Automatic annotation (TrEMBL):
<dbReference type="InterPro" id="IPR029495">
    <property type="entry name" value="NACHT-assoc"/>
</dbReference>
<dbReference type="Pfam" id="PF05729">
    <property type="entry name" value="NACHT"/>
</dbReference>
<dbReference type="Pfam" id="PF14484">
    <property type="entry name" value="FISNA"/>
</dbReference>
<keyword id="KW-0963">Cytoplasm</keyword>
<dbReference type="Pfam" id="PF13516">
    <property type="entry name" value="LRR_6"/>
</dbReference>
<protein>
    <submittedName>
        <fullName>NACHT, LRR and PYD domains-containing protein 3-like</fullName>
    </submittedName>
</protein>
<keyword id="KW-0547">Nucleotide-binding</keyword>
<dbReference type="InterPro" id="IPR007111">
    <property type="entry name" value="NACHT_NTPase"/>
</dbReference>
<dbReference type="Pfam" id="PF17776">
    <property type="entry name" value="NLRC4_HD2"/>
</dbReference>
<dbReference type="InterPro" id="IPR041267">
    <property type="entry name" value="NLRP_HD2"/>
</dbReference>
<dbReference type="InterPro" id="IPR032675">
    <property type="entry name" value="LRR_dom_sf"/>
</dbReference>
<dbReference type="InterPro" id="IPR001611">
    <property type="entry name" value="Leu-rich_rpt"/>
</dbReference>
<keyword id="KW-0067">ATP-binding</keyword>
<feature type="region of interest" description="Disordered">
    <location>
        <begin position="1"/>
        <end position="41"/>
    </location>
</feature>
<dbReference type="GO" id="GO:0005524">
    <property type="term" value="F:ATP binding"/>
</dbReference>
<dbReference type="InterPro" id="IPR051261">
    <property type="entry name" value="NLR"/>
</dbReference>
<dbReference type="Pfam" id="PF17779">
    <property type="entry name" value="WHD_NOD2"/>
</dbReference>
Length: 1099
């Protein structure tokens, strides 16, 4: 070990070998040298101590100290200094913006700053080093000035002028200028000759949300838009693309690695480019010294081993003269397009590296940089499509964000910005709003640009009737791309014929690579398919519009189609062109090695395509099939005249294809497959079949009318395609089987309330329901599973979903679901989860017993528990459960407001325990229901004491179907007159009461302190005399009662006179009175009817 290293103070004895070397932390990143004055740390008594900001974060990373020691001993006066631990007091001497030491003093404005601030804000100012008591900094300054205005540059080992701008500022300025030149213009799909759009002018901000995990979706990416655009705005935590590395208010850890996911064309690369341009223009994120964009599409070209430094110098030649740049700067590495990567990225087995100058494969360099193994102060930003986001282990990711495309306002703003003529722009907006599927797809910026480019041309020519399907749109896009820069719009057929060979070559490239899920092509790939972009007609025409060159590195070009959907369209164009022009069924030849003899029908081609698409696990052929089916329609054949040698009437084949699709819909397929099949029907424009589903759907919505599985698929399709979120979806009205449930489950994501009642939910159903609950785009807030037979395994699946950070369910109702105390363990884990949003849990009529309550009570005390309402009605509980609940009620973390324990044998002793808790200031319970709990008048003693407590929050009390008697009511009435009593609602159905209790209640109601608003005395023998006593109280101005229940109280017409007086009283506040089941007689009803017409009546 270097002798100098032995002098470093690490805060503990240094062993011969380091016991802990950080190789995966984001703290293994270089920080600038910071200087400490003696008075900043009382524990430091020696002159010339130098504190390193990095060292306080990672004390044991000895490899990083080596870098600091090398720098410290580059200047002679610093050779006597030594590393010490930074203290909390010294945080005050750090620049809050750049986290660097305040070592410079500016005479002009009397402020302190770090060296980076001097470069950015104080150019030309008179600068002094800070003074210290021991004069060490003066000595350092003299050592520096001895070099006659030059200082050693630790990055190159050379001497450079020590001006206010410095070597780093010079490099940064040159680097920023290069980045601005590279990214300041937008790529235009159908650009006008000689015109380019600035990124700042054409870029409309897309919605970026913060997430935690990347969910797997097995359908085509475009199908995900149908749920994304309905995601509740309140649950999406939006974040500016320029703020993705800034911790949120409650976040304490630094954001080192950000993974941004999003479907193809949604705006990931544009967000990256705008981020870079904003940084290069000095507008945002100036704390990064350098930003390096390294697209995977270009990294794939590097086959030989190379060092990290060498890799950067290949992409950015301006840094070639700075060999040690990586150890002195705060650097952001941006890796764009993880889905285009051809690297294995094996984080477990790849060689570990820390030397930025050591050569290795690009794969190894990437994994080590992401893990934080290199001796670099690095931040990482990775973009990816959802399907490949899982290639980066979550432990290496600090934040996950998702680009969700345009919002409605942004979409319209983009259209108006893109389209110069206001009238045409408004027509475009109106047109896409009529076609719901097209409107949804326009949330993708690239597709929106295609739509605007096409509609801008077609609407000017009044050809909007040719734009009724997705295939219509892309066929018109092809025509616009071919004719946009030519004044030959009347010669479309001729242009298509002259470009037929080129279109077929591009289509073959698209088709054969679509099956391989390959979207990136190189020169050798183009040569293999006979595509020569050096041909002047190709390079200046079609290929420049739909087949773009993405970069040039090592003299090799990289290409891709404008968007994945464009590749899928060209693949379909090639297959349909081969069929129509040469009578070849490429699908059978390609997929089943089967050669056709004789005439091939369009139906056989469509059938083969549909079969292949239904077998695809990830839905990568879904849009290909839609395009292929749409090309056989009359409208698309007419547009493609010239490319097609002839047009034919395929109406019979289209009708047969529609029948085959209907047959597939009846089969057991995934929800994504059903959805794609309905999209296929739309492309065929088979209105009769669509109308058939529409009619059955309307009939099925009638209560009691159930649907077949295929009709359930139709309901799902239309629901997902509609604009509105469903407030309350009752699945039990439609589903008749497990298959129906499976097909209707996707509707859960766009419903606020889902009712799945009176089913036998299997494990498969619960698994799919759990997936819906965990979807980050789910709108579901309330789930009702009443009267389902569920086992422990099914409950376990649901509870795992409820613990997901994406699950936002607030209400769960599971009455009559066959739950046992064993299920309470899983439910308790949900309540204790930091991600749980559950506010209401309804568990009536389940065999939970006291042990289940014990488990739930422990969860109610947890600091993460947010539950406010708990119902355990008829759950086999005894007075013993009150012990556990009493403990929970007294917890400082207890948030429960409503508790229902009705139909359990609590007895008076159980209520005694609960009442004791109600008097504690920590108890927040506002509603208690204990009907049918075997209670007597004795329990009223405890409840009365609780009601009179100043700490009681009880507002609602249900004591129905207990033998309280008049003596019990007397005790409660006394409590109602106490000024501390806050009770608003009191139920005492069938409590063995007589007219005598009305005397006590009447006295309470007339008290100025009584807050009672609702009183229910039904099923008690109050008789007419009791009503007379209550009526006198109801006419008292101090009485606040608004609702009175007296059903089946043995009342006669004699009481009606007293009640009529109440109704006509100006002082009465009564709004509701319930008198069912009493023998009031015709005369009594007449009296009440007359009273109801009174001017003062409020009932």
């Amino acid at each position: 070990m270097d002798p100098e290293m032995q002098r470093i103070k690490l805060g503990k004895p240094v062993s011969p070998e380091p016991r802990s070397v950080s190789m995966s932390s984001d703290h293994s990143m270089e920080r600038p040298i910071t200087f400490r004055n003696e008075d900043s740390d009382p524990s430091c008594t020696e002159t010339g101590n130098v504190a390193c900001y990095f060292c306080k974060m990672e004390k044991t990373a000895l490899n990083n100290y080596m870098v600091h020691v090398h720098q410290l001993h580059a200047v002679a006066p610093l050779q006597r200094t030594r590393q010490v631990e930074i203290t909390e007091n010294q945080e005050l001497r750090l620049c809050q913006q750049h986290h660097r030491t305040l070592i410079l003093f500016f005479k002009s404005n009397q402020t302190l700053a770090c060296n980076l601030s001097s470069e950015q804000k104080h150019r030309g100012h008179d600068i002094n080093f800070l003074k210290t008591e021991h004069g060490s900094t003066q000595e350092m300054k003299r050592a520096v000035t001895e070099h006659k205005g030059k200082t050693e540059d630790f990055c190159t080992g050379e001497f450079q002028e020590m001006g206010s701008q410095g070597w780093l500022n010079t490099l940064r300025r040159k680097h920023k200028a290069n980045l601005r030149r590279k990214f300041e213009y937008l790529f235009e799909e159908v650009a006008k000759p000689g015109k380019h759009t600035l990124l700042s002018d054409g870029f409309t901000h897309v919605k970026v949300s913060q997430g935690i995990s990347a969910e797997v979706n097995y359908g085509h990416e475009i199908s995900q838009l149908e749920t994304i655009f309905k995601s509740p705005k309140s649950q999406i935590q939006s974040i500016r693309y320029n703020d993705i590395f800034k911790p949120l208010e409650k976040e304490t850890k630094p954001i080192r690695t950000v993974l941004t996911k999003g479907i193809a064309g949604i705006g990931k690369t544009f967000s990256v480019q705008r981020f870079i341009v904003d940084w290069a223009s000095q507008n945002e994120n100036q704390d990064f010294d350098l930003i390096f964009l390294l697209p995977f599409i270009e990294l794939n070209l590097i086959k030989a081993e190379i060092s990290l430094l060498g890799l950067l110098q290949c992409f950015y030649p301006e840094i070639k003269s700075y060999d040690n740049i990586l150890i002195c700067c705060k650097i952001l590495f941006i890796f764009d397009g993880l889905d285009e990567s051809r690297f294995a990225l094996n984080f477990e087995t790849n060689q570990r590296l820390s030397d930025v100058k050591k050569e290795a494969s690009v794969d190894v360099l990437l994994t080590n940089l992401i893990q934080g193994n290199f001796n670099v102060y690095a931040f990482i930003w990775i973009t990816s499509r959802p399907a490949t986001a899982g290639l980066i282990p979550l432990e290496h990711i600090s934040r996950v964000t998702e680009v969700q495309g345009f919002e409605d306002q942004q979409k319209e703003e983009f259209i108006r910005k893109k389209c110069k003529e206001k009238v045409i722009a408004e027509k475009i907006i109106s047109h896409i709003q009529k076609l719901r599927s097209l409107y949804i797809m326009c949330y993708v910026p690239v597709i929106c640009r295609i739509v605007v480019s096409v509609l801008e041309h077609t609407l000017k020519e009044n050809n909007e009737d040719n734009m009724k399907s997705l295939t219509d749109l892309y066929t018109n896009f092809l025509v616009v791309a071919l004719t946009a820069k030519k004044d030959k719009k009347n010669q479309v057929e001729h242009i298509l014929r002259s470009n037929q060979e080129v279109l077929m070559k591009l289509g073959k490239l698209a088709f054969e690579n679509l099956e391989k899920s390959n979207m990136v092509f190189y020169d050798k790939d183009l040569t293999e398919y006979g595509i020569d972009l050096n041909n002047s007609s190709l390079s200046s025409g079609l290929c420049k519009e739909i087949f773009k060159q993405k970069s040039v590195l090592f003299q090799e070009k990289v290409y891709c189609f404008l968007h994945l959907t464009v590749q899928e369209y060209f693949a379909a164009l090639y297959v349909f062109g081969s069929f129509q022009n040469s009578n070849i069924n490429l699908l059978k030849k390609t997929f089943w090695i089967f050669f056709n003899f004789g005439t091939t029908s369009l139906f056989s081609l469509n059938e083969a395509a549909l079969q292949r698409a239904t077998l695809s696990r990830n839905g990568h052929l879904d849009l290909f099939v839609q395009f292929l089916l749409g090309m056989g329609t009359k409208n698309n054949q007419n547009i493609l005249k010239g490319f097609l040698s002839n047009t034919e009437d395929h109406s019979n084949d289209i009708h047969k294809t529609a029948g085959y699709i209907k047959k597939l819909i009846r089969e057991s397929l995934s929800c994504e497959k059903y959805r794609n099949l309905f999209h296929c029907l739309s492309e065929l424009k088979e209105d009769s079949l669509m109308d058939e589903f529409n009619v059955t759907l309307v009939k099925g919505k009638l209560r009691g009318q159930t649907l077949t599985p295929s009709q359930c698929s139709a309901l799902t399709y239309y629901s997902l395609l509609s604009e509105n979120v469903i407030d309350d979806f009752d699945m039990s009205q439609y589903a008749t089987s497990e298959e129906c449930i499976q097909r209707l489950l996707p509707v859960a994501n766009i419903s606020k309330t889902l009712r799945m009642e009176n089913f036998t939910l299997t494990q498969k159903c619960c698994d799919n329901l759990a997936s819906a609950l965990q979807s980050q785009h789910s709108n579901l807030r309330k789930l009702c599973l009443r009267d389902n037979t569920m086992g422990h395994s099914e409950v376990k699946l649901l509870c795992a979903a409820l613990r997901s950070p994406h699950c936002k369910l607030e209400t769960l109702r599971m009455s009559w679901s066959g739950l046992t105390d064993r299920c309470c363990e899983d439910l308790a884990s949900v309540l204790q989860s930091q991600y749980s949003s559950l506010r209401e849990l309804d568990l009536p009529h389940n065999d939970l017993n006291d042990f289940g309550v014990k488990l739930l009570s422990a969860a109610l005390c947890h600091q993460n528990c947010k539950l406010e309402t708990l119902s355990m009605k008829d759950c086999g509980l005894t007075k013993r459960c009150s012990i556990y609940l009493n403990s929970a009620l007294l917890s400082q973390h207890f948030n429960l407001r409503h508790l229902n324990l009705s139909y359990n044998n609590l007895w008076d002793s159980g209520v005694k325990l609960l009442s004791a808790a109600l008097m504690d200031p920590k108890c927040k319970l506002e509603s208690l229901r204990v009907s049918w709990c075997v209670l007597t008048d004795r329990c009223c003693i405890y409840l009365a004491s609780a009601l009179q407590s100043q700490h009681s929050c009880l507002r609602e009390l249900d004591l129905s179907f207990n033998n309280l008697g008049d003596s019990g009511v007397k005790l409660l009435s006394t409590a109602l007159k106490n000024h501390n009593c806050k009770l608003h609602t009191l139920w005492m159905h069938k409590c063995g009461l007589t007219k005598r209790c009305c005397k006590y209640l009447s006295s309470a109601l007339q008290s100025q302190h009584c807050s009672l608003r609702q009183l229910n005395l039904s099923y008690n023998k109050l008789v007419d005399t009791g009503v007379k006593l209550l009526s006198s109280a109801l006419m008292d101005p101090r009485c606040k009662l608004q609702s009175l229940g007296m059903e089946k109280c043995e009342l006669t017409e004699r009481c009606c006179e007293d009640l009529a007086s109440v109704l006509m009283s100006q002082k009465s506040n009564l709004r509701w009175v319930y008198l069912c089941g009493n023998n009031l007689g015709e005369s009594g009803m007449k009296l009440l009817s007359i009273a109801q017409r009174s001017h003062y009546n409020k009932v």
